[in-house]
Every structure is written in C-alpha cells, then in structure tokens.
Amino acid sequence: MTVHYLEDFAVGQTYGSPRLRVEEARTIEFAKEFDPQPFHLDDKAARGTVFGGLAASGWHTAAMTMRLLVEGELKPAGGIIGLGFDEFRWPRPVRPGDELHLTSEILEVRPSKSRPAQGLVKVRTT
C-alpha cells in the first residue's frame, strides 16, 4: 500500500477503486434498518414506482462508496478524513447485480490555513 503525502498529490491525478457487486440481500437488509421504503425493500412493490424495480437506498450507495474509497488507490497519510461534501448526487438507481467502481480526481491541493503541518485535497469521485 502506497501512502501519499500532500506533496505527492497534483491537480488532475486520478485514483481508482476495486469493484463491488451490489447484493440483493444486503440491499434489503440496509433498507430495513436505515431507509425502509417499499422501492428499497421489495422488488414487486418497487415495480410500480419511479424506479421500476428494486433499487438500493442512496445512503446504502454512499456507504458502499465509502468502502470503495477506503479500499481504493487514494491513500492519503492519516486516512480519508472528510470535511464535507460540496455536491452529492445519485444520477441513476443502483440495483442488485450492479458492479460499482470509483474514479477519484484531484481538483485542488493546498496547505491548511489553520493547521500548517497538514493540508487539504479536494477530490471529485464518480
């Protein structure tokens, strides 16, 4: 595992992730506990909705995204510590059987104003 320090990052660099197959049982388990809406719980009920079939909760998708980030090539020293999101979108439903993969692009690299020994790396992940 290669750990990257602030000086190792440059705008335009990209980092990939492994692949993760979305499983129906885990999709339903997550929804039961955290987002119990019919289109996340039951394929038959979901067919009559805007999704047209079972779809993972957006929050489940976000959790899987975090896993892929942690397991991916982007390895900042100190770990992935998020200060927040500028934008968060779910452009299409994620369904059981789909395979997720991330690409993270470095948008900005700068030293921290409040903590000069540390820095900030702004990333777009798709």
Over all CA atoms, what is the radius of gyration?
Answer: 17 Å
Sheet having the most strands: 3 strands, antiparallel
Q: What's the overall average pLDDT, rounded?
A: 94
Order of helices and strands: EEHHHHEEE
Q: Strand percentage, roughly?
A: 15-25%
Secondary structure class reads alpha+beta
First-to-last CA distance: 22 Å
Number of strands: 5
Brief overview:
The chain has 126 residues and is α+β, with helices and mostly antiparallel strands. The chain is 26% helix and 18% strand.
What does this structure look like?
The model has no long low-confidence stretch (mean pLDDT 94). The strands form two sheets. A three-stranded antiparallel sheet has the order 1-4-5, with no helix packed on it. A two-stranded antiparallel sheet has the order 2-3. With 126 residues, the protein is of the alpha+beta class. The chain is built from four helices and five strands. The chain has helices spanning 24-34, 38-41, 43-46, 58-71, and strands at residues 14-16, 20-21, 99-100, 103-111, 119-125. A hairpin with a 7-residue loop joins strand 4 and strand 5 (119-125).
